């Protein structure tokens, strides 16, 4: 796992992934007390940065392997990112989802060209067991959501763009806040910044109660969350940082920041009002940290990555009703 | 009014106006039956394309004139665009608004650095009379919302970007649909496309009951709307096309398209769900035409300009509840 892999992924993504712009608002600057610069990956294909990792992984396969197809375990943004990336390569994709996943997510993933295989989560069926049988039978390649070098390389292209775009805005020093699940995006961005913008420092942001990465960075060992569900920030809830991602974050990242669910919802509302983008609560924790935890941040400007926008209309409406 | 003025405006806007990306979604393509490409000017500074015209006009003034300041009559997107453009130039801006304008719009315009002067609309006071006195006393330059060459030139830079960005996507033929008020944006884009992408044709889109431009293009003379208010698409409601903009549209534009308010609201909801952008109803009529009036459109791909995102949360919530 090195910067050359990220640069190679950027070459493969060119013309396929969207180069998202940087967004700003004087109203957000006033709240934060410093310049706030948002990288809206909610505008990426499939509504999250996950398309980058999906494209990177699928495009890195040799032709024969790619033709057999890929498989992923996800009911969320990773599923859609892999599905569309595979479809655009003309490669079959199997997405393994729990049978109690929202019908809309299943439908969306199918509409993006993937075959959805359901496993009986409430009945205690093991998804890996289900997936492994299919993968072996068809010779599918597993694409893990974050602990996978080519996925990290794809997510890291976000960091290459931030380095270049922030420089155009005259920002070469400060913190880059990243909504963090398993650490694929955070570790990829950290490596890209180390190489291309050493004055910018990657820092993970997590919601209260699901701060495994933040605690892991403090203790120096891989920590685990007690709960695995029950957060509005579901898009970025993972049990613990990855075995590949954690050492990278440990070496390169500044301290993590924890925000409350209410702060995440408030950031969702402000992104609606001031930036005109749709962000899911989990994708808004970095912006929430930039706006409401300024005392923990260094520098005259801060970059916040809004990682995804796949939010239910009721949750979004609730954020607007309470905070817009 | 010519293409050189648009190119010169683009030079002045570089590094100041945002170069908005083009957005797409396979889900929208399926609804429309062709490729749908969205130019999201809701992501422009102040949440609408109006910042371009504001910047163009303010930056075109000579130093001494600019220092005296500018004045605009608007309670909407033009007010905010001019206010921020003037503030960033260090120029005073007076915005004349009716005293029954929403408090939020007044506050936002003030927060962007402008002096807001209220006139008594319910009491029948004439805004031009109020504004003219101030303008004369202070030597302010009036910036009209659309019938103003440097404003048209600024809006036209959107067309230069569309020409270049559409070419990158392999789209060189087809219709470019534009939410149309007085025609500043539509005429500017039409001129830019004539010069830079002659296979792309500008076409205005308006809401039912406020289709002055569409009718004017049919009759060949300037037609007027019976009503001046009462539309959810308030951002693009004007009495009639401008004296400068209409001849340009008449020479260069394809036939206009009229959409219903419900279709505009449906497009607002689909832009939320599939593109993760916040669009106001008036800023969504072009997308609505692309999605729901495909029979009136030619070409394998269609470009729709989403012109603004300054929508009240209640209106937005209503669109989601009904159509998302």
UniProtKB/TrEMBL annotation, chains A, B:
One of its GO terms (biological process) is D-serine biosynthetic process. Keywords: Lyase, Magnesium, Pyridoxal phosphate. The keyword Cytoplasm does not apply. Residues 15-308 form the Tryptophan synthase beta chain-like PALP domain. CDD domains: Thr-dehyd (cd01562). It holds the Pfam family PALP. Its cofactor is Ca(2+); pyridoxal 5'-phosphate; Mn(2+); Mg(2+). One of its GO terms (molecular function) is serine racemase activity. Belongs to the serine/threonine dehydratase family. This is Threonine dehydratase. It comes from Shimia abyssi.
């Amino acid at each position: 796992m090195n910067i050359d892999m990220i640069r190679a992924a950027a070459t493969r993504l060119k013309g396929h992934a969207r180069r998202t712009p940087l967004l700003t608002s004087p109203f957000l600057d006033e709240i934060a007390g410093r310049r706030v610069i948002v990288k809206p990956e909610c505008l990426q294909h499939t509504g999250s940065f996950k398309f980058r990792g999906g494209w990177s992984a699928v495009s890195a396969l040799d032709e024969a392997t790619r033709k057999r197809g890929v498989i992923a375990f996800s009911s969320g943004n990773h599923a859609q990112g892999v599905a569309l990336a595979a479809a655009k390569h003309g490669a079959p994709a199997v997405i393994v989802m729990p049978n109690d996943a929202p019908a809309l997510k299943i439908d969306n993933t199918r509409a993006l060209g993937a075959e959805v295989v359901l496993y009986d989560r409430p009945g205690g069926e093991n998804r890996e067991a289900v997936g492994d049988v299919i993968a072996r039978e068809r010779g599918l390649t597993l694409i893990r959501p974050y602990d996978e070098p080519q996925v990290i390389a794809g997510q890291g292209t976000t960091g290459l763009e931030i380095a270049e775009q922030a420089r155009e805005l005259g920002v070469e020093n400060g913190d880059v806040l990243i909504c963090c699940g398993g650490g694929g995006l955070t570790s990829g961005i950290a490596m890209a910044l180390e190489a291309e913008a050493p004055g910018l420092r990657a820092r993970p942001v997590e919601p209260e109660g699901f701060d495994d990465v933040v605690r892991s960075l403090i203790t120096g060992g891989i920590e685990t969350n007690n709960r695995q569900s029950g957060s509005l920030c579901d898009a970025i809830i993972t049990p613990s940082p990855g075995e590949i991602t954690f050492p990278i974050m440990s070496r390169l990242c500044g301290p993590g920041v924890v925000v409350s669910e209410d702060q995440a919802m408030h950031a969702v509302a402000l992104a609606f009002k001031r930036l005109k983008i749709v962000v899911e609560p989990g994708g808004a924790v970095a912006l929430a940290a930039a706006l409401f935890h300024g005392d923990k941040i260094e520098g005259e400007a801060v970059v916040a990555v809004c990682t995804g926008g796949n939010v239910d209309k009721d949750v979004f409406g609730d954020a607007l009703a309470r905070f817009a």
